[in-house]
Amino acid sequence: MPELPEVEVVRRGLERWVSGRTVAEVQVLHPRAVRRHLGGAEDFAARLRGRRTGVVRRRGKYLWLPFDDDAAAESVLAHLGMSGQLLVQPAEAPDEKHLRIRVRFADDAGTELRFVDQRTFGGLSLHDTVPGDLEGLPDVIAHIARDPLDPAFDETAFHTALRRRRTTIKRALLDQSLISGVGNIYADEALWRSRLHYDRPTATLTRPRSAELLGHVREVMTAALAVGGTSFDSLYVNVNGESGYFERSLDAYGREDE
Q: Which pTM does this prediction carry?
């Protein structure tokens, strides 16, 4: 499943190619792609039509597209799941085999947004936003913690919560209510760089050690971002369909028998 760097790569592409455009038409080509939208496919398409998109946002592994207009305070939430892709394609490009949703825009840019998902574990849905939240955070992910690359991430609160958890360090890193965006790949890499065993109890971590670990989490994620994330197969791509290359730099993940 894509982790923070892979999702951030997609967010940056969407910000460049989608933000500020007005939706002309939405086609839902597979109902599972909008199964989290309670109103169903027709309602999803109708409620997006005519809306002007704002700046694409991200928290952890979740992306959302707020609207920059005077209509309802809503945002489109995107979860990529195991194989979801958000692609910006020329309108005349052939449809992908697993195309699930198409979004056309009311301009002459000549491109459209496509949600492609082979395994259909991901999807798009429309949600109310958290009242007063300036980034249009969907209310259904309000419980998700901020991620370590977020300027508002609270290191002191993270350390305090870490010490209080009766769990092990890797499990804590994967807990999206404690720190978001970290999955198996970057947890393994950060633990390896910190020389910490994955099964070490969190209560034994001192403040300097947890700060060091957090630093390595940020370090490895920043390095992955610089090369487009980690792509083990063709399913993890940016909005232009290009893969990342950080798998060539992995020191720990997937190397148990070496």
A: 0.85
